Automatic annotation (TrEMBL):
InterPro entries linked: Glyco_trans_1, Glycosyltransferase_G1
Protein name: Glycosyl transferase family 1 domain-containing protein
Domain Glycosyl transferase family residues, every copy: 69-216
Keywords for the protein's UniProt record, in alphabetical order: Glycosyltransferase, Transferase
Organism name: Opisthorchis felineus
Amino acid sequence: MTESVTRSRAVVLFAPFMLKKFQELWPSYPGLVEIIPQAVRVDEVSAHKNLSIHRRWLEEQVGCKMERFFVIAGRLRPVKAPEFALTPFLEWNGEPLMPSTGASGDNDWSFRPHHHHLVYIGSVEENTPSIQLFLSSLTSSHVHHVNSVDRECLHSLMLASDGLINCSISEGQSLTNMEAMMLGTAVLARANPGNCDLIQHNETGLIFSSPQVEALK
């Protein structure tokens, strides 16, 4: 990386936290440095239109109804730490969700234990035995893995889901997070500079720093 930087005339960064890190690593860089945030484009109309088709496809893949679920999307590799959310999800999903009383006095919702599913969507990076071991350990009937899907299908599944979970140890500027946010899908993201730069906790998403049930709730 240092060789690439020293041979360059200009560097483009996505966010201020990247600039800070860049200046720490290469304080004497003589070239031009610019921050140009990424942007995403989503077709929400198409995602809604094909939602039922893509939901049925997912149900065929996993072999069960998918009424309430969360997604973890992206190529599975160690930096994405897909195992980070598994235990707290299983613990939370094993508990009944208590009903909340609405203004009418009626219970707005009430779920028995095992009310949600967790779906990992993405291919597996080569030569990652830890990820292969993790996937082979998935024994819960409420946790699933499907290979990569096209962008249109992913966006429909994001809309159908109750939220996107990002467990990455580190992030640059996650396009998957940005696409989910553009679609109005709730984003639950692990605290790291990239996610914290993109998401304002309790405003544009939820940030958690611990794999404990309370933190993820």
